[in-house]
């Protein structure tokens, strides 16, 4: 199976069915969609939204790749409010027939010490069990070291649990993505987030022109035979600049040709 090149809905100037139509217009193969929530757009499971997305996927030929629970960064994965959000996330993914849901661990969900690590294990162990029962993979996106990330997976202990590789967040935290690939190749999910940095001010650099050392990371994925199914652009395109988006898609497409998911 060829490696797809996709977009992250929450980094686009369009949402919902419009994001899929934008993806088709610029030549992307798929879209990861967001659960939504306060400050993050309409809830994915709002009345009629699941059906509209499925219809848009069918009419455009753009695949629905995954559902992200970015609202958990606002709620806090360790808070009592997290489990209802996780249930909505998993149910929405099941209704959309996507293979993957992922849970970010930033801001209020940051794994910033032993207590947060233990509580994250507890919540994700439960969520992984729920995902497995639905035939889904559940992945964590975090900036743990390789050893910490492997321990997280071992303590969760579920075949449904994976790790999302983001090509810049670990770099911003002082880690090497290529080294993480070498340490964690057997645990990585088959969808990889592509972005380059630093993104703090102004538009993020075009892929391959920033400080993320993307060539090293993508080379490591190939060398360690990680079965990458989708390279998903996560640079910030919310300003509507299609020229940057098309340029990044072309850059990613050159690498995707070397992967077989």
UniProtKB/TrEMBL annotation:
Its EC number is 5.1.3.35. Keywords: Isomerase. Gene3D superfamilies: Divalent-metal-dependent TIM barrel enzymes. It holds the Pfam family AP_endonuc_2. GO terms for molecular function: isomerase activity. Residues 20-225 form the Xylose isomerase-like TIM barrel domain. It comes from the Bacteria. This is 2-epi-5-epi-valiolone 7-phosphate 2-epimerase. It comes from Actinacidiphila cocklensis. The gene is acbO.
